[in-house]
Amino acid sequence: MLSVLLGAAGFAAVLCLWFPSVLTTPELREIYDMTLIRGLIKAGLLAAFLCGAASSSSSAARRSGSPVSAWPGWPR
């Protein structure tokens, strides 16, 4: 679920970068640093990818009956 939220937020942020005159205000565009904003978007999209990959591999391991799913305390 977190990966979907981060991915959607990243997509919305990219749309704001592509269409700044429509989706942002001129007053705020003067305040924030675009290098920082782009870095945050990249970090958020990377985190979304990693969360999705971890979730996918975890559920695949549980379905296949691999030893990873037999670890104590591992959710089944």
Describe this structure in words.
This protein has 76 residues and is mainly alpha-helical. The chain has a domain at 2-51. 76% of the residues lie in helices and 0% in strands. It has four helices and no strands. It has helices at residues 2-18, 20-23, 26-31, 34-64. α1 packs antiparallel against α4 (34-64). The radius of gyration is 18 Å and the shape is elongated. The model has no long low-confidence stretch (mean pLDDT 82).
Structural key phrases:
single chain; 76 residues; mainly alpha; 4 helices; 0% strand
User: Which structural class is indicated by helix and strand composition?
Assistant: mainly alpha
Helix segment count? Answer: 4
Unreliable stretches, pLDDT < 50, 5 or more residues?
none
Described by the principal axes of the CA atoms, the overall outline is elongated
> For the report, how would you describe the main beta sheet?
none
Mean pLDDT: 82
Radius of gyration using CA atoms only: 18 Å
Helix content: over 70%
SSE arrangement, N to C: HHHH
N- to C-terminal separation? 17 Å
Topology, please?
Elements: H1 2-18, H2 20-23, H3 26-31, H4 34-64
Helix pairs in contact: 1-4
Short account of what is shown:
This protein has 4 helices and no strands. By secondary structure, the chain is mainly alpha-helical.
